[in-house]
Design goal:
This protein has about 80 residues and is mainly alpha-helical. Helix content is about 75%, strand content about 0%. About 10% of the residues are buried. Keywords: Membrane, Transmembrane, Transmembrane helix.
Length: about 80
């Protein structure tokens, strides 16, 4: 949810898609570290990490499709300038 929300906001702000991909990789890496090595407030759960990977992948696919197909310039806004 965080990745889709922030990533979509970045798409609307016309941030380079490379930074959105890097943000997703950061989320995946933090998921690995949290699920496998940090056991302070967490029970190590491998299945939960798989769901984290799947959720991040689905969010990335949504952002990629939105970036390629959904984000189009508004021709009326360009005429006013």
């Amino acid at each position: 949810m965080i990745y889709v929300g922030i990533g979509y906001l970045y798409l609307m702000m016309d941030v380079n898609f490379r930074y959105i991909v890097l943000f997703g990789v950061l989320i995946l890496l933090s998921n690995v570290v949290f699920e496998y090595w940090i056991t302070v407030l967490n029970t190590p759960d491998i299945i939960d990490s798989y769901f984290g990977y799947a959720g991040t992948l689905l969010a990335f696919l949504f952002l990629f499709v939105s970036w390629k197909i959904g984000m189009m310039d508004n021709p009326l806004a360009e005429k006013e300038n």
